Amino acid sequence: MYQSLTIVGNLGRDPEMRYLPDGTAVTNLNVASSRRYNNRDGQPVEETTWVKVTVWGKQAETVNQYLTKGSKVLVEGTLTPDPNTGGPRLWTRQDGSVGASYEMRANTVRFLSSKGDNGGSYSNGAPAEPEEDDIPF
């Protein structure tokens, strides 16, 4: 069996890097990926999905060095399920409601905007943001 997840989005905040006792670098990213479409009434809808990404080793150091809040990235990796539920990690908010978060371990992180160009478009012809879809309901 093989699992692979690819997301394209923008960093919601600056990367956070730390080192494990054995010297391994670990960087955490929060990536927002948006989808735009028109609902059945023709009204535009934008859905944003947040994914917590963990990057390891030398790549973690590079990501921490070059990416900042707003940077556009393409991340390939695998989902990290909650060991208790097998799905998204569940947590309790301060108001008592249940929240869920998607988490993934990155195998590859590709920079789609330069260091000084947060949120800029990818120069190889890929769109800066997802195209609008018309979903017929």
In total, how many domains does the architecture comprise?
Answer: 1
How would you state the average pLDDT, rounded?
Answer: 84
Q: Sum up the overall morphology in one term.
A: globular
Give the N-terminus to C-terminus distance in angstroms. Answer: 34 Å
Could you give a short account of the major beta sheet? Answer: 5 strands, mixed, barrel
* CATH-scheme architecture: Beta Barrel
Q: What is the strand content?
A: over 45%
Q: Flag low-confidence runs.
A: 118-137
**CATH level 3 topology:** OB fold (Dihydrolipoamide Acetyltransferase, E2P)
If you compute it from the alpha carbons, what radius of gyration comes out, rounded to the nearest whole angstrom? 17 Å
Written description of the protein model:
The protein is mainly beta and 137 residues long. It has one domain: Nucleic acid-binding proteins (OB fold (Dihydrolipoamide Acetyltransferase, E2P)), CATH 2.40.50.140. Helices cover 7% and strands 48% of the residues. It has one helix and eight strands, in the order ββββαββββ. The chain has one helix at residues 57-66, and strands at 5-11, 16-19, 25-38, 44-56, 72-79, 89-92, 98-111, 133-134. The chain has a five-stranded mixed barrel with strand order 1-3-4-7-5. A hairpin with a 5-residue loop joins β6 (89-92) and β7. The longest helix is centred in the middle third of the chain and has 10 residues, at 57-66. The protein is globular and about 55 Å long. The termini are far apart. Mean pLDDT is 84; it is low at 118-137.
